[in-house]
Structures are given as C-alpha cells and as structure tokens.
Amino acid sequence: MKAFFLKYRKTIGIAIAVIVLLTLLFAPARNQDRRGSTYSRGPGGYGAWYAEMETQGAAIQRWRKPLDQLLSRDPSEGPITLLQVGQTSQWLQDRVTYRTELENWVQQGNRMIILGGGFWQGKAMPVTLAPFNSSHDTAQGAIAIATSRRFDLAEVNRGLERKILDSDALEGEDAALPSSLAPATVLVGDKFGGIAIRKVRGEGDRIEAVTPYLAANAYQDVPGNFAWLAAQVGDGPIWVNEFSHGYKDRDALVEAGVKTWGDYFLRSPLVLFLIQGAVILVVAVVAQNRRWGPKQPVVPPPVNNSEAYMTALAGVLRRAGNSNFVLEQCKAAEQQRIQRQLGLGTRPLPLEELLHDWEARTGQSSEELRKLLVSDQPSRQVSEKYLVDWLKRSQALRQSLVST
User: Fold this and answer.
1) DSSP codes of every residue in 325-338
2) What is the pTM for the complete model shown?
C-alpha cells in the first residue's frame, strides 16, 4: 500500500485538489430563504406560531403558487391577509415585478404584513442607539425584540410625499394627501423610532416590521409576540407566502420545468458527485497515460527473414540492372513446379524431355511451355513490361495445367 501511494502520490494529490475545488465552487450553500417559513422548526422558523393559529381555529393557509395568481384573485371573494416573513430573493423579485399590482391589491381592501420588510423601495432600516434586546408593551402583552434597527417615521412619510409629487397626484403644494396614500403610523415603537408601522392604502393597509423574527419559534416563551402578530393578521382568510421560501405546489413545479427525473438530478447535489467522479476518472487516465485496463507493451511486428532477404536482393539486382538474372531464376522455379505437378521429381530435366512429357501427360501442345522456359531476351536488362507479361503467361499456363 505504501509503495502504491508513493508511486501515484502526484495523481492522488491532484485528484484531491480538484475535488476540494469543485466542492467549494458547486457545493449547494445553505438556503437562507427557509428562515421564516412555517415549515421550519428552527429558531428562525414560524412553525410554532402557525400551529398555534391552527389551534385557535384561524382560517390560515400556506400559499405555494406564484404571487401573480394571488393578486389576480376575484375581489368579490372578500379581502384577505398576506403574510410575508423575511426579505427572500423570490420576494425581492416579486415586489419589483408586481409593485403596481401589489399597491392596487392592498387598496382594494386587502392587508399585507411584511416582517423584516423595510421601506417599500427596499432601503434598509438604519441602526440606531437602541439596545439590541428590548421589550415593549402592547395591548396583547409585552413583546420582545432583538434588533437595534428602527423606522424613521419622518423619512417614511417624506418618501411618501416624494412619491406622490413624482406621480403628479397633487395639483398644489398645500393640497392634502389622498386617502389612498395616508401617512404611516407607529404600531410599536420607542424613542428611537418605529418597530412596526402601518400604512393605510385605500380600503386596505400594509403593516411592516423591522425584524423578520417577531413571532419566530425562538419567542415561544414570550406570549405577547405570538398574540400581537395574531391580532394584526385578524380572523382571516390568512395566506402565508411560502412560495417565496421555495415551497411550491405540484403545478408550480411543473411550470418551473421540473418534469423529469433527469431535471431533478440536474437540480440536486447529485450532479456534484457525478462531476467529481468524471474529474477523478480523467485525472487517473491522464496520469497513467492509458485508457482502460493494464498497461500493454508495444510489440514490434515479427520479421520475416526470407522476405527481408528477397526484398534486399531484389533492390540490389534492380540497382545493378541485372533483371535478366531474376527472369532466369523465375524460369527455373516455374520448371521445377511444373515437373512436380507432372510427377517428374524436382531434378531439372533437359528441356526436350520435359516438353515431350508435357505433351504425353497433358495432351496439350508444348509450344507455349517452350516460349515460357526458353529465353528470347539475351541482354542482361529485361524491361518491366516483359517481366509482367511473362508472369501473366506463366499464370495462364498454370491454370491450364490445373484444368487437365
């Protein structure tokens, strides 16, 4: 084992480094959007408050569809309350996309409660000199707050005035604010500013709190927190926006494109393990310089000595210009083969005796055999065309001998 590690220590080191890098780049981060969800049992979740509301018989439900479907609800069905806990990424996107629709929806008589919402324009509340942990008396009992942020009511109303002036809603500087955009009032606060404020919008209103943890599970021992939020949402119908926390109904999942197991795995951390496995395989293949299985040595092709000798000799004869010698050797070899086929042995016979035996055994004329075995090229150099023609005649004669 030690020898194996020493031999492949570089490969193992590279693989470990790549895995660590991929884990840092692609590992799914903890989803902070789950904080404030009624499904969460953690300190920042709202599971305990939701359960208490159900125990009290409140008409409370979880909304797990896109926000536009809630806003397009028929107003004749009566007003409802929408509770949004925390500034999740989905909510930040929705409140920009449906800004006008949300305003109109509230003015129709609906109520919207945003815990940890801040300004409607998305500006964060300033940190004040208020103690981080404080308690405040309300009609429902004392509530505990863990934040130093406060609403600046004057700034909130100045922002409201600027909004009205920019929309040309007022014709003169002394005109009163329309009832649909009345100044904000403090529901819970202290000398440092507002902790929860209310903004009347037409027939409805919007309540905002500086902290998303006002009725979180961590405050189960403080009855005033749960009771205060229950008083604000009223008797219902109450919808808690769980879609912003990533919880979706089946039809919403289908619309989002999660239709196949393949999509599911691509959207899950399993794809990270597949990528890591592929990287390890590639690194191992490159490091070992081979594809699959054990290393195979390169085997040189076997050398045919006879073929090599003949090739070398042919090259020498060709350079010497002695092709006639090649022809004579071919004639001698062809005569020996013919004798063997006729049953005359391998000892060279006189030409006339071979021709006589040819006619006697095959019944064919020996003239073609004579032309094949008798040289009619006295020069040392025989043309390649003549050699090719001789080989063709030799093959034809061989075929005629086989047919007999």
Assistant:
1) HHHHHHHHHHHHHH
2) 0.55
